[in-house]
Amino acid sequence: MFCGFTSTTLLAKPIMENTHLTIENLRSSPLFKYISDNDLRMIAKTLKEESFSANTIIFKEDTRGERLYLILDGRVRVSKITQHGDESPIAVLSKGDFFGEMELIEDQPRSARTTAIENTIVAGIAKHDFDSLIKTNHIVTLNLLKAISKRLRVTDDMVVTELDRSVEAAVAQVEKLNLLIDAAKTVNSTLDLDKLLDVILETSIKSIEADRGTLYVVDELKSEIWSKAMRGTEVIEIRLPIGKGLSGYVAKTGETINIPDAYNDPRFNPEVDKKSGYRTNNMLCMPMRNRDGKIIGVFQMLNKNGGPFTSQDEEFINALSIHASIAIENARLAQEMVNSERLSAVGRMASTIIHDIKNPMGTLRVYAQVMKKKSGNEEAAKLADEMIHQVDRFVNMAQEILDFSRGVSATNIEEVDFGEVMEGVLLFIEKDLTKRNIKLERNLTYNGKMKLDTDKIIRVFYNIASNAADAMPTGGTITVTTEDTGGMVKVDFKDTGSGMPEEVKRRIFEPFVTFGKKHGTGLGMAIVKKVMDDHKGKIEIETEVGKGTTIRLLFPL
């Protein structure tokens, strides 16, 4: 029996052979499996038969769900619209399948859209009839649960597969972002313009696997592009009028030129190869713009390893050019400095960097946080944490330089657990030291309370550890010791590096003084001294050439 199911006839179609609404069609659905003929006839009275031509949307997402649909003939596609406006298929349903049940059960708007793939006939049951049916017919209810369970299993498999793909894509993206961050740090490693151009070119060639390359800089006064930075040729310097040749054309128009087959492209001049003896297979020319969108240079890359340059190569060079343009402008500014203006100029550069990286770095950080939250993958989460770490480090370094150059001495001093602070910063430092084959040893005996500006003290410890690591290029050991000496807390950073000559020791806290380092601004130890002065602390140095250095920090209690 139908267990008291009360129907409201929406369409009084008799069950006849010449209609699609037959007992055989109903019974083909897993929803009505094991239902008696009599009950099927009663159910049929509540059904409304509808026809949809191919490519017709049956219902859209976010609309109210008033019916469950049973496919009598044809096929439908269930899909969702992505944030980019693309349609992402979820499932294809055919004769006997049903859809639209979740919206009736949850009493919520449709969560997906359904489109007829071909001419399709469906039978719909209204919500109030559906509710009555599942309440009174336990077989239908059981069939519904089984069908939903099966769909959830399939969906779970699809989600896992898609998640794996997403994680792989996320890992690849993080690797690209880390590569870009490393490239940005390298590009910002010098203020000497000639060296900078060489670094930018070397970084770009290596990153996109080009065989050769040239980096041109725009000379507005002469209406030329020029370069001293080249790879794979003995040419020291070349100059071209803006507008001449492919690179000159890019400098004039700002267009990107990506030639997959040079000798089959009319824009390429083979005479250059004849003169040099070099065979150009493919070429990528891209403009370098400053933060105002003005073209200040051109990247010219030749012969990518493995085939033509890709859109991903273009994206990387474009991202790198943002940092390169900032670095070039900063280098130009640095060359204009005189001793009395150097510190002020560094402040302007730091301000420019912070201004330009605030939004893109913030975006990267948000993407990393989202990836960490949604990936559900431990490895991806670790990579996201590393990216967040590198972004924060980069931004903090720029802000630190800006504050120092402006003479900002405001501190946020509060009482903290020194042991927790010390252990936390050492874990932070240890990540970088391990990559450089440097062992970090701890001898932490003081765990009391202290009044500190935690962020600035973390930077002090990091600057000291970084300098120590630079003095041990092949590896070594840094030993950190804390001790209560009676009224003062002593923190020692002892390394097994090369030590410092007396002259360097004497000038180590002066701005722009470096020793034994290929990269750096020369402000690290000057900033350390400033922070310690703000904390009314002291710094002592014990060093011997060839035996290592101990930096001692003394904090008042």
From the structure above, extract its key features:
single chain; 557 residues; alpha+beta; Jelly Rolls; Beta-Lactamase; Heat Shock Protein 90; 5-stranded mixed sheet; 15 helices; flat; disordered N terminus
How is this structure best described in words?
32% of the residues are buried. Strands 11-10-9-14-13-12 form a 6-stranded antiparallel sheet, with helices on both faces. A 5-stranded mixed sheet has the order 16-18-19-21-20, covered by helices on one side. Helix 5 (138-187) runs antiparallel to helix 10, helix 6 runs antiparallel to helix 9 (311-335) and helix 13 (454-470) runs antiparallel to helix 15. The chain is built from 15 helices and 21 strands. Residues 1-18 have low confidence and may be disordered. The chain has helices at residues 23-27, 37-44, 101-106, 127-136, 138-187, 193-208, 245-253, 271-276, 311-335, 342-375, 378-406, 418-435, 454-470, 502-507, 524-534, and strands at residues 47-52, 57-59, 67-73, 76-81, 87-93, 98-99, 113-116, 120-126, 210-219, 224-231, 238-241, 257-259, 283-289, 295-304, 414-417, 438-444, 449-452, 476-484, 488-495, 538-544, 548-556.
